[in-house]
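Can anyone check this?
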Amino acid sequence: MTVSYITFGHFEQFTTTIYCGKLFIHTHHTQLMNLLVDHREGKVLPLLQDICETLNPPIPCEVTQLSLGDFFLISDTAGTLIERKSAPDFLSSIRSNRLWDQLLRFMKSSTLLGYTLKRKVLLIHGTFSYLESTHAFWAPLVGAYMEILFVYDIPIIFLEDDEAFTACMKILIQRESSGRNDLSPSPRWFRKHCAPDLPEMDKKRYVLASLPSVGDVLAKNLLDHFGTIAAVVNASEKQLQRVEGVGKVKAKKIHEIFH
């Protein structure tokens, strides 16, 4: 059931779900999720069911037959396809070449059950500590990792035990539900540090250089032409085009930032 309400001047909607006799509210800032589990994954099914039931809000966990992958985490129109391999099965599938056939089908598939595949991931569940650690063992294994990452373009997550597997699936569901896996990197991670003792003009260049389509050279040109940041902000597109390095397209982009 979908309900609309107004709070502090903002129009919001939320969906109510009754699960195990309890009422849960999903705001439309999050996505309703559903986890499909292949029937052959009985070993980890209790873990997945517990995860789905203890999430707030909980999500359905349905056992089915998947033609591809082991788990399929879906929202309204798209989904994340997950292949889980125990450490022994991972090694066995490399030696038999079964892994490469599976990953090729992973790579070529764009939809599953009518949902767009927006993400694919390989989980390696367990460790190789039961085997002797030698160069002869690690060389082909590391080569396989690189083949998966660089040739098949499928990310790998290593999960040491059931605790790690549980944490991984829970966090994955939460991040997919909130949309955090679709975000761009936070600007604070790639913004250049501005030293507090910079000269005033260099600080102004720093501010302008942080704008989209504006680097250090263009920031200097803008300040040389207009003198102040305020003048750049108030400049028209035609005035911006008089600056060296600013064409019609770039002038429009800069102008749209401030207006």
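Reply from J.R.: I decoded it. Residues 31-182 form a domain with the Rossmann fold fold (CATH 3.40.50.10130).
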